[in-house]
Known about the structure:
3 copies of one chain form a homotrimer. By secondary structure, chain A is an alpha+beta fold. Chain A is 18% helix and 29% strand. Chain A has helices spanning 20-31, 49-59, 103-108, 133-146, 251-255, and strands spanning 8-12, 37-41, 67-71, 82-87, 93-97, 112-117, 156-157, 172-174, 177-185, 191-196, 210-213, 216-220, 232-236, 241-246, 262-267. The first copy, chain A, has a 7-stranded mixed sheet with strand order 2-1-3-5-4-6-7, sandwiched between helices. In chain A, strands 9-10-14-13-12-11-15 form a 7-stranded mixed β-barrel. In chain A, a hairpin with a 2-residue loop joins strand 11 (210-213) and strand 12 (216-220). In chain A, helix 1 (20-31) packs parallel to helix 4 (133-146). Chain A is elongated and about 60 Å long. Chains in contact: A-B, A-C, B-C. Chain A binds chain B through residues 7, 9, 11, 16, 36, 38-43, 55, 58-59, 62-64, 186-187, 222-225, 235-240, and chain B through 15-19, 21-23, 25-27, 29-30, 33-34, 77-78, 129-132, 135-136.
Amino acid sequence: xxxAPRPITFLSDYGVADEFVGVCHGVMARIAPGAQIIDIxxxxxxxxxxxGALMLRKALPYMxxxxxxxxxxxxxxxxxxxxxxxxxxxxxxxxxxxxGLLALAAxxxxxxxxxxxxxxxxxxxxxVSATFHGRDIFAPVAAALAAGAELLDAGDPIDADEITxxxxxxxxxxxxxxxxxxxxxxxxxxxxxxxxxxxLTETGLRLGRPVLVGDHxxxxxxxxxxxxxxxxxxxxxxxxxxxxxxxxxxxxDLLGVALDDxxxxxxx
Amino acid sequence: xxxAPRPITFLSDYGVADEFVGVCHGVMARIAPGAQIIDIxxxxxxxxxxxGALMLRKALPYMxxxxxxxxxxxxxxxxxxxxxxxxxxxxxxxxxxxxGLLALAAxxxxxxxxxxxxxxxxxxxxxVSATFHGRDIFAPVAAALAAGAELLDAGDPIDADEITxxxxxxxxxxxxxxxxxxxxxxxxxxxxxxxxxxxLTETGLRLGRPVLVGDHxxxxxxxxxxxxxxxxxxxxxxxxxxxxxxxxxxxxDLLGVALDDxxxxxxx
Amino acid sequence: xxxAPRPITFLSDYGVADEFVGVCHGVMARIAPGAQIIDIxxxxxxxxxxxGALMLRKALPYMxxxxxxxxxxxxxxxxxxxxxxxxxxxxxxxxxxxxGLLALAAxxxxxxxxxxxxxxxxxxxxxVSATFHGRDIFAPVAAALAAGAELLDAGDPIDADEITxxxxxxxxxxxxxxxxxxxxxxxxxxxxxxxxxxxLTETGLRLGRPVLVGDHxxxxxxxxxxxxxxxxxxxxxxxxxxxxxxxxxxxxDLLGVALDDxxxxxxx
Lengths: 268, 268, 268
């Protein structure tokens, strides 16, 4: 009895100018013919593990459960492990380097229940190059798992709590206000914060009301058209996370914040 | 009896750096497993509805008939409707914002015979975000229709002539010559005009002959190699539309024209 | 009896901003419904036939055998032939312009055993434009072949040795050292050479040992972390070809070499 292969999703920082993504597709098509491969994105800032982890966490709930390949791998060829893991919810399999890239997405689906080190998996290509583990380890392991191979047979079992975590700042309700952090920026200068609307109940911050972001007056709005051009706004982004934007401008420039910088938000 | 899903084509201005396109693919793969999704392009200038409408019109005849999703949506979250429509010819279903984006392509296939407002379609994701209707409304509606859902059940019926049109300039044969307009530019500075070769019969313009474009001498040529480098040429582009180019140069720079500018062409 | 279509791979210099790639996908989906299409890459430097030929040669071994479409076509509309060929090994079919683009990949699979000129193939679209043969000739011919059409019926037979070759410099072991050439550069300034590790046996160059590249001291290393930042290294790249790099720098800038420039490498 043959079973249709599971869908594979693929996220990386390889860019689309070179053949890296295409070659990984080819490798997977050879091992799991007929498997659907969905590219989440390949334009992540090079080597930005955290941006990759955040993107994977927010994109995965919209992807069909299957095998989720992610490659942002600044220390390829070094000591970091290559891993595959199974999440507690929805039986999703995540494959990638053990550098924190998979941690937030695994958490989002109830955590890891099984994990293996696939650095020496028998599903690898032979030989394995020093620099292109996406092609030689991660893609073939992902494809083999999509085609029905057993996770626990794909590598050496490791403890779920040995998996590398991603250290992220953490929003806190303090007496002087809600202390949040700039955890991401998009190309428009919008700032992603580390808090969701539903966590605001105790903070006195209310949709439709003025707020203070540090010393800057802002409006807690629904859409850009709720505030005049040039005006700072706090809003819930499309992934239910709070964010800061300037209508037709750049919140990042206005506030002059860098990654992980702290911001205090309170009712105005 | 299950029927194979129809192919889906997808055009947007989302770019490929972020996860927007990938997330829409994921949403469609969940709703219409096995549906083929063909990306027409996602590199349209941001918010350029007309460039999107022109690209959709010229690309669609080369696409298998199916469901054609297009998202260029500068007023997302505002009042514009979300629509799905069926064309008179080839039973193509077009899905997108009702801002003119679908108008030229619908016209190209004989016009609209059925249309629905899908803003509150039961195929939507729940919740619907304020800013990412591609993911929350358009992609799920397109996928449901590809998987066999009925168009008239996907939203509230609207009159075909209530659909927003796209206002375009219109080429006219005048006594002083053929008055055309610059309706698009590509990255090489080639200028797309709003007239086709077959409309030239009464104008005295003949392939292989010299013409005047305003005060500039040009040649009505077949390929770039028909004119010397630096020389202006009028030609039929790969979609049978007339265009202006400078061999190894930029017609846009030479003529100094902007979008919709009028140009008069006559035999030299 | 219907047979599943063969996979198609697609390489071009069309870029992804415009609709060119998407339109070729649409054309192929109409002719070979259900065929898997794998994009190798579309970001090649415009009109760079040799970069395309090198990329095709290195990517193809990782692709499932099938029909391999490649379009880098600076003289489209001119005299060059359009061809389809079958390789001696693995029954791969290559389709593209006869300008050397297919030559290295064909060689890699044992050379050409059958070839046809498809410029006037009955599989072409009608009409054929002057400038977009990817859409009008190459994609439809590739799709027809993937769907099961006979190669020898797809065009006019031509002799395998009439196919245009690609002239490349050739590495030579000379008394003063190994004379190699800079045959490609990537965006990090790494330089691809025209020699593989396995060809070094007689040269005295040994992995782990210091070497001289012209007058520059370098190290024959395995990975970037083997040399300090700013230091030149010789290494085997992910496709088993020798290359030069500077850890966190640009070998191209350091050595000031241009395409095809000669370099002499010898033990230090």
